[in-house]
Write a structure and sequence with these properties.
By secondary structure, the chain is mostly helical. Helix content is 73%, strand content 0%.
């Protein structure tokens, strides 16, 4: 019964969001080039979630051996469950529900490690983009007259370095949990974080980076499709900053698209008189393709967990 409730609520949420989207004019698909771009965007969709499933399967290597298909099912089901929680943190709980009950707690920490890796990639590339952006568009990143663009660039590069160092010392989370008395009950499953070697963390970070390139490319292709005139270097920096801001602002899922669209318009409309509506449309389309469609499949998995995809 709970499975069906999760599926129905998530489907209702997706439907309510999708109904508010502004769709491109049909004339935009009159061009063969635009049709090809759209096909490329959709072809990257399975690659996106297969790479996430591969990462999840790899993280579970010491906990429970699962097939890539089961990893994909649990990732999509976790995505659906995540839509019901702020900042989609429910994904961390939703994925391990498809493991053996004895491995659920360890699975949540394995999922946490994967989320930290993806979060780290977003921060690293976002801070690098901030360093670049502050040089070319100082007025947009100048928080105070006390900070020069050089200061902001150096600070951004320093933060990127800190994220890299912090990620490869992920075992510190376990050490913190170990010292907090009321968290002692979860010490054993939390040890999963301490068990990952730097080589394993490198693999997970590489897969996360590859996945970031996939949905970043989708965003870029949609901007081209919707005729947003941007130089490649500026578009890449703007997309990275959009993901950085939307990731750093912890909001309820229903506000996620609005925050991301606002950030995209802010960072991507600075080069010229870019089409702000088209930018917001591209942002919403990325969410619709990469989140809504897979989450609908995840809803089906919640209703029929034993069926194959």
């Amino acid at each position: 019964m709970l499975n069906i409730l999760i599926a129905l609520i998530s489907v209702g949420y997706i439907a309510s969001k999708a109904s508010k989207f502004s769709l491109p004019a049909p004339s935009i698909f009159a061009s063969t080039e635009n049709i090809a771009l759209l096909i490329c965007v959709f072809l990257l969709l399975p690659l996106n979630w297969l790479s996430e499933a591969l990462k999840w399967k790899f993280l579970l290597g010491r906990i429970e051996k699962i097939t890539l298909l089961l990893a994909l099912k649990s990732v999509l089901a976790g995505l659906t469950f995540g839509l019901l929680t702020p900042a989609r943190v429910g994904e961390i709980i939703g994925r391990p529900m498809f493991l053996a009950k004895k491995n659920f707690a360890k699975g949540t920490f394995a999922a946490t490690a994967g989320s930290i890796a993806q979060f780290s990639v977003t921060l690293i590339l976002g801070f690098l983009a901030l360093a670049f952006y502050s040089i070319y568009f100082p007025k947009k990143v100048l928080i105070s007259q006390s900070f020069s663009t050089t200061t902001i660039s150096i600070l951004a590069l320093f933060l990127a370095l800190c994220v890299i160092l912090g990620y490869f010392n992920i075992q510190l989370i376990f050490k913190i949990v170990e010292k907090i008395s009321f968290l002692k009950k979860i010490i054993k499953p939390a040890k999963v974080l301490a068990d990952y070697t730097k080589k394993e963390l490198s693999v997970v970070l590489s897969i996360s980076f590859f996945r970031y390139l996939i949905f970043g490319t989708q965003f870029l292709l949609l901007l081209i499709l919707l005729d947003v005139p941007l130089p490649l270097y500026f578009a890449v920096a703007g997309i990275a900053l959009t993901y950085l801001v939307s990731t750093l602002i912890p909001v309820a899922t229903f506000a996620e698209i609005g925050i991301r669209s606002s950030a995209a318009v802010f960072f991507l409309s600075g080069f010229s008189q870019s089409n702000e509506i088209a930018i917001a449309m591209a942002t919403a389309s990325v969410w619709l393709i990469n989140v809504a469609i897979p989450a609908l499949i995840g809803a089906f998995i919640w209703i029929f967990p034993k069926k194959n995809l």
